[in-house]
Give the backbone structure.
Amino acid sequence: MIYIEMYGRLGNQFFRYAVARSLQLDFYPNEKLIINFNQVNESGVNDSTFRDYLQDYNVVPYETYNKKGKVMWNETSPIQKLTAAAYYSGLKKYTPADMKEEYVYEKKWANRLNKYGLYWFRDGYFDLGKSNCLNKIVSGNFEAPGYFDKYKDILKEEFTPKYPRIEKNANLYEKIEKNESVCVSIRRGDFETNTEFKKIHSICNRDYFLEAIERINAILVSRGKKPVYILFSDDIEWAKNNVITGYETYFEDGTDPVWEKLRMMSLCKHFILSNSTFSWWSQYLSASINKIVVSPSRQYNNNFKSPLIDENWVLIKR
């Protein structure tokens, strides 16, 4: 069995599913995916944006874990438990600001964790190997395309919504598909309202978006193209009041389900990203051949170099 400790919203859930699916395709084709949504459901008690988002997509069949607690402790053998406990005793010392140091620590444990089927990595990329243990555990952020890039075409199919386009968005789809559309993804929410989150995640302010727009305008105009901007945000009013593009601009109205919003975003030709996983997936799922992607030069307010930042993108120094 491949057990997945799931947490977060859609962007985070996609990463964990993608790495588990890659492990299944690489090493365990006859083993089922069993997903533990306990952490998600606990968060969902007070915040309805936490839920199982995979159910809206054409992912492979999976079972939902129905026991209390964590699969890391419930479904492991004695040797796996001992290994996990020893690893966690050091891992828990690191704060969100210590990602670079945490990565060094994880690297020392990588071979042993692989051997015992404990795919438990929070930051950065590590080669994953086959384990002979009965149960395999996926628990971590896995925010690195290297984990699943070779299965990108498969994942793009599986990350297609089950549902048709919402009729009220027909005009917006037309603007996206018939023009040199630029998706501007503006993540605010708890990145700005939660004191602890703000310390590590507050990077993309008004100046960032204005500079990103200026850069992408210059590139497209030099190609003889006229941009049409489509803005997506969890705070549409802030976007309307602060982000001026200088060109034809439209706004997603903020009422769409997440699967509809991400589909519209990914259909755009070019992208201005926020430092969020949801934003990152919009460009990854895009079929645009000559897409321009503009991004902050770092994902977090610390010294960790995230694999999510592609050096071939247009990077705005933050």
The longest helix spans residues 10-26.
